[in-house]
From TrEMBL:
<keyword id="KW-0378">Hydrolase</keyword>
<comment type="similarity">
    <text>Belongs to the peptidase A22B family.</text>
</comment>
<dbReference type="InterPro" id="IPR006639">
    <property type="entry name" value="Preselin/SPP"/>
</dbReference>
<feature type="transmembrane region" description="Helical">
    <location>
        <begin position="92"/>
        <end position="110"/>
    </location>
</feature>
<dbReference type="GO" id="GO:0033619">
    <property type="term" value="P:membrane protein proteolysis"/>
</dbReference>
<feature type="transmembrane region" description="Helical">
    <location>
        <begin position="311"/>
        <end position="329"/>
    </location>
</feature>
<feature type="transmembrane region" description="Helical">
    <location>
        <begin position="246"/>
        <end position="270"/>
    </location>
</feature>
<keyword id="KW-1133">Transmembrane helix</keyword>
<feature type="transmembrane region" description="Helical">
    <location>
        <begin position="202"/>
        <end position="226"/>
    </location>
</feature>
<dbReference type="GO" id="GO:0098553">
    <property type="term" value="C:lumenal side of endoplasmic reticulum membrane"/>
</dbReference>
<keyword id="KW-0472">Membrane</keyword>
<dbReference type="Pfam" id="PF04258">
    <property type="entry name" value="Peptidase_A22B"/>
</dbReference>
<feature type="transmembrane region" description="Helical">
    <location>
        <begin position="26"/>
        <end position="48"/>
    </location>
</feature>
<protein>
    <submittedName>
        <fullName>Histocompatibility (minor) 13</fullName>
    </submittedName>
</protein>
<feature type="transmembrane region" description="Helical">
    <location>
        <begin position="177"/>
        <end position="195"/>
    </location>
</feature>
<dbReference type="GO" id="GO:0006465">
    <property type="term" value="P:signal peptide processing"/>
</dbReference>
<dbReference type="InterPro" id="IPR007369">
    <property type="entry name" value="Peptidase_A22B_SPP"/>
</dbReference>
Length: 370
């Protein structure tokens, strides 16, 4: 998922010469907003309990304060590197290599996304066989597991379906296949990338706020890469769908970074809500509504001024500001910034052994229990 976060993070029209109808514009932007909300909502819910998986590939990656501080620098280097590649080398060959890379990642991401739904609809009459993919290094007492992936018949079906979508994307580059992969990347990012506390989230969002504004308004790098990069790192929706149907070709787009970066912060606030044990989701609902407000404001400004906008310019103040104001009003601001609510331990281990579901830590700080 990480490469998708370092790509373009703005909403823009690909062809400036195309004039969309008001209906087509409203449909395109409304669809982008709806698609952006799906991985944030479901990814946040899945992030609460994703630690119960025994597969190492399903365990969350924790972003620390140091990681958050470095991320805008790494993202800037990656973005500028892509810009230079597109300027120096043939765009066709670069996109071919990137397409193959994201073809593999997309199949795995989409398969992981479909797995919970397949568990619900899979017929009970069909026998389920278990499989294990194991790679080790060394022998005897020095033997070390590199990959230990367990899967079953349902996972195999998800993999086959995902491969069909991947072949469709490689052959046709159809926008629906692109969006299926993009939604899978975004949902997996929100689910599996965990911030260790609110302060780290503020550092990450603040750094990428500056990154987004600089590369969109300060240079033409972001927009150039966005238009040249043919990979499912953005959601797209045609503005001429009403006129041309599924064969439409004039797209509005939203970079996955504008979904995943605020999304992992919103997921953190949901885990914070759970850790308070008050049976409310105040901070999650507040930040979710703040995201809708920020994205809507981005679209309005872009449509009014006819210029690509760095969405994080509007999303970051909204997603941080609204929950902080609520915490101030509730007198929970100190608790919000001191609590550590990222630790998810697998079922049957640690202090939550009696509970079959992993529990976000609500210790008020780093302690032995955390």
């Amino acid at each position: 998922v990480i490469p998708s976060l370092t790509g373009p993070h703005e909403i823009a029209d690909i062809l400036e010469t195309f004039v969309a109808t008001p209906e087509g514009t409203a449909l395109a932007y409304g669809s982008l907003v709806f698609m952006a909300l799906l991985p944030i909502f479901f990814g946040a819910l899945r992030s609460v309990s994703c630690g119960k998986s025994k597969n190492s590939s399903d365990m969350p990656e924790t972003i620390t304060g140091r990681d958050a501080a470095r991320f805008p620098i790494i993202a800037s280097c990656t973005l500028f590197g892509l810009y230079l590649f597109f300027k120096i080398f043939s765009q066709e060959y670069i996109n071919l290599l990137l397409s193959m890379y994201f073809f593999v990642l997309g199949i795995l991401a989409l398969s992981h996304t479909m797995s919970p739904f397949m568990n619900r609809i899979f017929p009970a009459s069909i026998p389920i066989k278990q499989y294990q993919l194991l790679f080790t290094q060394g022998s005897g007492e020095t033997k070390e597991e590199i990959v230990n992936y367990e899967f079953d018949t349902k996972d195999m079906i998800c993999l086959v379906i995902s491969t069909v979508v991947g072949v469709w994307y490689i052959l046709k580059k159809h926008w629906i296949a692109n969006n299926l992969f993009g939604l899978a990347f975004a949902l997996n990012g929100v689910e599996l990338l965990h911030l260790n506390n609110i302060s780290t989230g503020c550092i990450l969002l603040g750094g990428l706020f500056v990154y987004d504004v600089f590369w969109v308004f300060g240079t033409n790098v972001m927009v150039t890469v966005a238009k040249s990069f043919e990979a499912p790192i953005k959601l797209v929706f045609p503005q001429d769908l009403l006129e041309k149907g599924l064969g439409a070709s004039q797209f509005a787009m939203l970079g996955l970074g504008d979904i995943v970066i605020p999304g992992i912060f919103i997921a953190l606030l949901l885990r914070f809500d759970v850790s308070l044990k008050k049976n409310t989701r105040t901070y999650f609902h507040t930040s979710f509504l703040a995201y809708i407000f920020g994205l809507g404001l981005t679209i309005w400004v872009m449509h009014t001024f006819k210029h690509a906008q760095p969405a994080l310019l509007y999303l970051v103040p909204a997603c941080i500001g609204f929950p902080v104001v609520v915490a101030l009003l509730k007198g929970e601001l100190t608790e919000m910034f001191s609590i550590v609510c990222y630790v998810n331990e697998p079922a049957g281990s640690g202090p939550w052994a009696a509970n079959p579901y992993p529990q976000p830590c609500g210790c008020g700080g780093v302690t032995a229990a955390c």
